[in-house]
Amino acid sequence: MASLIDNDAHRTEIFDSLPYYDNDLEQNPTLRGKVERELAREPKPPQTLHPRVPPAIELFKDKPGLAAELARVEAHQPLAPLDTIRYQLPAPTSTPGTDEEWQQALNNAQSQLEHQRIRHTNLALLQTYGPNAWRIHNYLLEATAKQAETALEELKQRTTDVNRERKNSQTRIGNQLTSLENKWTELISSILQIEMANVALDAEVDRLNKKEAELASM
Residue 161: pLDDT above 60? Predict the structure, then answer.
């Protein structure tokens, strides 16, 4: 449904429609083809998101190692095999070994021992504090998920309420339009009947005038 409003300085074209009420496209299949061709000529909508839509979250932006691991999982790539060379204690290759080779082997053994000591400490800390920390982490995740679900349900409910209100309003206005259109049709039909009656009366008056003139001439 389109309407034109004429002003003194310019003409403003306003387009309005009642999609829950208008069924012109269903009643006139040829009209649907015209609408589709008209829409095909329209410029494509912008691909950019609305300014109120938050930007996409970039995971592990400051942690390239985790970002690379996430990319590997998304690409369905297998996990790299564990490097066991770093856990070995190679002895000097030459016989007899030089002092430098033995010093390197000793430094490697000390590094492995320190690594195992730190690992044992971390495992002890994890065994003591890990379960509670994991429970708290899961609790926070569940609370965040519930908040997101609640916000989503509220948004869906608001969308449903808006659509229901629009449908009720358009149905009510559509019924008024139908009533006014029927009344307009009845008035037009009455005017046509009156005009036809006037034409018949004029013809009858002309006939009577002619008959009166004939009688007067006799």
Answer: yes
